From TrEMBL:
<keyword id="KW-0238">DNA-binding</keyword>
<keyword id="KW-0805">Transcription regulation</keyword>
<keyword id="KW-0804">Transcription</keyword>
<dbReference type="GO" id="GO:0003677">
    <property type="term" value="F:DNA binding"/>
</dbReference>
<dbReference type="GO" id="GO:0003700">
    <property type="term" value="F:DNA-binding transcription factor activity"/>
</dbReference>
<keyword id="KW-0175">Coiled coil</keyword>
<feature type="coiled-coil region">
    <location>
        <begin position="43"/>
        <end position="98"/>
    </location>
</feature>
<dbReference type="InterPro" id="IPR000524">
    <property type="entry name" value="Tscrpt_reg_HTH_GntR"/>
</dbReference>
<dbReference type="Pfam" id="PF00392">
    <property type="entry name" value="GntR"/>
</dbReference>
<dbReference type="InterPro" id="IPR036388">
    <property type="entry name" value="WH-like_DNA-bd_sf"/>
</dbReference>
<dbReference type="InterPro" id="IPR036390">
    <property type="entry name" value="WH_DNA-bd_sf"/>
</dbReference>
<feature type="domain" description="HTH gntR-type">
    <location>
        <begin position="11"/>
        <end position="79"/>
    </location>
</feature>
<protein>
    <submittedName>
        <fullName>Transcriptional regulator, GntR family</fullName>
    </submittedName>
</protein>
Amino acid sequence: MNIIISNSSGQPIYEQIVNQIKNMIISGELKEGDSLPSMRLLAKELRISVITTKRAYEELEREGFIVSITGKGSFVAAKNVELIKEQQLREIEEYLQKVVEKSIACGISLDELIEMLTIFYKGE
């Protein structure tokens, strides 16, 4: 499992872990029943506190992405991938709505907004 932590990101480290593991599950890189590294091993690999990995795993478990079995570890839970994608789409729509409102307030045209979105999407 390849998790990259960015110190320059304004996002807390546990959220970066949560989001990256969620993305791996949604993309199919991690499948139902796959085991996750232990909290201690992940903390050691990422050179972060075990408390941080514990918080990330607890968040993933609370959201139903993983299940933890005492003495055995944490595993990707059986979950409807379509439902997860629908939740992601809803979040994207909320962000886009805010972007549109801000763009209109700043006088940015739809064409300019599309151009900006294209640049960000392509990572240019």
